Amino acid sequence: MDVPIEKLELSIDERRIRNEVGRITQHPAVSPLREPLVTGNKSYSDVTNDINVIHEQGAGLGWWIALAISSSLLLIGLIAGYLTVTVGIGTWGLNRTVGWAFDITNFVFWIGIGHAGTFISAILYLFNQKWRTSINRSAEAMTLIAVMCAGIFPIIHMGRPWLFYWFLPYPNSRGSLWVNFRSPLLWDFFAISTYFTISLVFWYIGLLPDIATARDRARTKFRRKLYTILSLGWNGSNRTWSRYETVYGILAALATPLVLSVHSIVSFDFATSLIPGWHSTIFPPYFVAGAVFSGFAMVMTLMILVRKVMNLEDYITLDHFEKMCKVTLLTGSIVGLAYITELWTGFYSGNPNEIFMIINRVLGPYAWAYWIMFTFNALVPQLFWFKRFRRSIPLIFVLSIFINIGMWFERFVIIMISLHRDYLPSSWTYYLPTTVEAGLLIGSFGLFFTAFLIFLRLFPIIAASEVKGVLKYAKH
Amino acid sequence: MLTSKEKNVLYAGLLIGLAGVIGGLIYSERFWASFLQNAFYFLSIALGGAVFVAINYVSNAGWSSVLRRVPEAMMSCVSIGAVSILLLFFGKDSLYEWTTKTYSHNGHELVFKNSYLTTEFFFSRMIIFLAIWVFLIYMMRRESYAQDATGNLSHTNRNKTFASIFLVVFGITFTFAVFDWIMSIEPMFFSTIYAFYHIAGLLLCGSAAITILTILLRRRGYLKEVGDRQMHALGKLVFGFATFWAYIWVCQFLLIYYANIPEETIYYVRRTGTQAWSNVFYASLFLNWVIPFLMLIRRGVKSSENWMLAACAVVLAGHWVDLYVLIFPAFFADPMIGLVDIALPIGFVSLFLLCFARNLKPDRMIPVHDPYLSESIWQERTDPAE
Amino acid sequence: MRNTNNELQRYTAAYFSNEDDLKGSTAEARLRGFTIHDVFSPFPVHGMDEAMGLKPSRITWAAFAGGLAGLVTAVVLQIWTSAYDWALNIGGKPFNTPLLFVPVSFELTVLFSGLTSVIVLFYLSGLNPFSKRKSLPGVNDDKFVLVLDHSGASFRKEAADEIFSKYNAEKVVEGDLV
Q1: CB B254 to CB C92 under 8 A?
Q2: B250 touches chain C (CB under 8 A)
Q3: Neighbour count for residue B201 (Cβ, 10 Å)
Q4: pLDDT digits over A38-75, tens only?
Q5: pLDDT for B211-255, tens place per residue?
Q6: CB C75 within 8 A of CB C101
């Protein structure tokens, strides 16, 4: 600020005020090594336009084609679901020995994918990682959709899914017969309901300012009405922002242990049992690491498609992918360490059932599934040690798909291989999926992509307000 | 760094420790268990410093550069920690029953376990693990000081590579180290999460130690540039790692309790079966999680040095009790604290502090050429100026 | 909005193009004795709470209370149903198994805490689906607005204009608060 010559002699009050203002407006230092998070010299209004134009303009041909494909997959799933509920679980390939296979594999697969969204939203927020701002909205949406896909499977795998409300502990005319609070399957119900609710709330709170922006720009009556209701009267007031930031921090601090607890409880479905290969104390952190691992792979797959088709390369930069690859590498390595630990412990235990379980996994009739799992999960992500792989979009796209295939097979290996040959050799048998089960798996992907495509059309897919907050970061 | 009076106190502590070793070897049946406990604790502090340094390099963290010399000095004590672990060779028959036994079940010999738990293989592994850690830690320290000497960024980049290698190698080697050194005390017990449990404890006591040492150095006039930002971050790390440790604690306990398989539950029966052991077992949970959680949950407290010192001291005591519960119930039907349990920790703490002080260079306490230092030194001015 | 004399309150709004100017002008206005009605921005500006002189929110207490309520609910629910009302022998475990009640207790604590915080946020900030509140033009896009109240004698036009020009205000608007 220029100080006029005649005002050089400042009063004490004036000096105090200037110091206070200087203190309040101070900026944190930023290392010269930091890169800007948004490229292309964007202004605030550029950010608003780039992001909102996507859901405002009419859908392009690409969107319709993608929707056609995903809806067809969804339709297959609906038919398979209809058959399952009306004809029965007999349409599946399950038998007395293998009581769970595709159903619970798909359940754990989808819940796992959902965890990356919360990781990006909540955990990276607590670690003050500003790069999360361009991917967290889509990742959170992905979480909600993935949890919905996941939730279908426990319900549909019950013999009488219309009675699923018996999971709720409500006073009833059966005694009252209460739910079994000591069962991991019941813990699942509480955990996943809580997870879905809190994720939904977190996503919605994050959306509020952006819906207000969309409302201000809305040109059709339908959109204006929709966004007016959904924006709850948001007006950018800092008194509100202040409370908002507090609540956002609280939700992030709650969501972080929630993420750990949900997939740990899912792992308890297996680890509390007596089956070799299931009862293993490492399951909770191993499953959580695996969930973040597969979730990040799916986020990367989706973001590669989104940034290309929606022209968002300036917001979802190569730097973002590098960081996501590093997280993928870290969690993949933890999963690899768990594989090594399980292999070693199986033999060290001296327990003949444990030893057999390991040998059967690695060399038995389903060994091909084990080796797909091991290669794609423990070995493939190690390529991300090399910068070339972390910064090449085509390579990341391929590797992320491999990782998701590998993680699906991990759940399949754990569930099916341990079941098909456990304690009693006379019960040993094989398992083959039926078309209905395959249809449900395909249908879940259909639901996932259909819902995501609809999300793209309705809401801003990048958290514009958060990106504006970091727009000036590291612009040296 | 240390006044001569302080040095004398620490030398006296060393002598007490030495007396404890000699007296313990001759008179105490608890000696080797106590020696393992304290030596491993000491090594964990050193390794905790190394893991902290490595994680901060790999994640390009900006807040921690200003205090990095503290964990670097901690990690440089690893050689002495390694030597004390190697000394366990002389107590192998007291600590590890497999040195004199082979295992079989229903007439079948447990081939893998018997060939894995042999003196030659066990100590070869020990030497390899320790050598790898000493080497990688030496390289990380060397590159860090070289960065300051030359200002050349290549040192930081090379250290990022060393740090990544260290983290991967550490994950694998520390896993098998704890399986060897502590889990094999009860050779028929196994738990796949066991290594994660120890890693959680290492992260927790490492962060607590860094916090305490940083505050103590700041009180001596060094590290004046360390401010509220660093204290808040350290407080959050201790809080987070304590909760993570409690999570692993619950997971192992819940799963073994739930499945109720005798070959596993014997582990917890030993630790909760008698009132005395049960008290110590749950005390460990209180010290490592309940108290630090309550003490560190409020935002404002992390600015209070005394409060942070107290919380971290509770954590360090808790980790000692944790190791006690991990090691001693295998040998003793009753928990006991005797002269050995007092003399050895005094000796090791004195040894650590002398080593730590020697590894600090008072004129190079801030890594002045660290590329992230500008971010680390900046502190938000909170007091209104005059 | 009407003041104690039942007159419509007047306000002066200054529009800025970036958050630094907004923060500086807000801090200076407050320190020089102006009454700040509110400040509007498209994203939360770090340090704005202090510039405005806002006190830290009490919502954290609501979160804590909610969490405690969730914990108590879960513990009472589980112990009463599993150990008292109709105790069933499940796998030979005792009727009261605190360790096995941890998962549900944890989930309900988190659920109640999160929902309570959000409900209190909506209530305190007047956020609801029937709200017809309008935003000042551009505040959800790229404008940063400082709104000064004319209540009492706090508003001095010349001093205000000095602050606005010092921080490069794009435009200044006067009007009545509704």
Answers
A1: no
A2: yes
A3: 26
A4: 998 899 999 999 999 999 887 888 899 999 999 999 99
A5: 999 999 999 999 989 988 999 999 999 999 999 999 999 999 999
A6: yes
Among C23, C71, C90, C99, the residue to mutate for chain B (most B Cβ within 10 A): C99
Q: Which residues of B touch C102 (CB under 8 A)?
A: 250, 254
Instruction: Quickly count helices (H) and strands (E) in chain C.
Output: 5, 4
Three-state DSSP state, C4: coil
* ipTM of the predicted assembly exceeds 0.90: yes
Q: Do the domain assignments include residue B367?
A: no
B158 plus B199 within the same structural domain: no
- Residue A363: partners with Cβ closer than 8 Å, 6 or more residues away: none
Contact B193, B252 (CB under 8 A): yes
Question: Residue B158: inside a domain, yes or no?
Answer: yes
Query: What value does the mean pLDDT take over residues B368-383?
Result: 84
Distance in angstroms between the alpha carbons of the first and the last residue of chain C: 5
By CB atoms closer than 10 A (0-12, 13-18, 19+), residue A143 is buried
Q: Do C99 and B260 touch (CB under 8 A)?
A: no
CA distance A343 to chain B (A): 10
Distance from CA of B269 to the nearest CA of C (A): 15
Nearest to A413 by CA among A262, A270, A274: A270
pLDDT at B386 over 50: no
Closest-approach residue (CA) in chain A for B102: A350
Shared domain for B142 and B233, answered yes or no, is no
Sheet with C144-149: strands ordered across? C35-40, C144-149, C10-16, C171-176
DSSP assignment of A406-471: HHHHHHHIIIIIHHHT-S-GGG-------HHHHHHHHHHHHHHHHHHHHHHHHS-SS-HHHHHHTT
SS percent in chain B: helix, strand, coil, step 5? 80, 0, 20
How many angstroms separate the CA atoms of A275 and A420, rounded? Answer: 11
Minimum CA–CA partner of C93 in chain B: B258
Q: Do A261 and C38 touch (CB under 8 A)?
A: no
**Does C100 contact B260 at a Cβ distance shorter than 8 Å?**
no
Before C125, cis peptide (omega within 30)? no
Banded pLDDT at A13 (limits 50, 70, 90)? confident
All structural domains of chain A, each given as residue ranges with its CATH number in brackets, are 35-469 (1.20.1630.10)
Q: How confident is the model at residue C178, as a pLDDT?
A: 61
| Longest CA pairwise span in chain A (Å) | 101
Neighbors of chain C by Cβ distance (3+ pairs < 8 Å): A, B
For A389-441, write each residue's pLDDT tens digit.
999 999 999 999 999 999 999 999 999 999 999 899 999 999 999 999 999 99
Q: Does one domain contain both C105 and C147?
A: no
Q: What is the mean pLDDT of residues B31-47?
A: 96
For residue B307, the one-letter residue type is W
> Chain C contact for B247, CB < 8 A?
no
Into how many domains does chain C fold?
Answer: 2
Contact criterion met (CB below 8 Å) for A389 and A395: yes
> Does the residue B342 lie in any domain?
yes
Scan residues 23-82 of C and list those with Cβ closer than 8 Å to A: 23-24, 27-28, 31-32, 38-52, 54, 56-57, 59-60, 63, 77-78, 81-82
Domain region containing B267? 188-336
DSSP B226-278: --HHHHHHHHHHHHHHHHHHHHHHHHHHHHHHHH--HHHHHHHHHHHSSHHHH
Mean pLDDT of chain B: 93
Domain end, chosen from C88, C104, C125, is at: C125
Count up the domains in chain B and report the number.
2
**Nearest C-alpha neighbor of A194 from the set A132, A151, A245, A158:** A151
3-state helix, strand, coil in chain A (%, to 5): 75, 0, 25
Residue A179 has pLDDT above 50, yes or no: yes
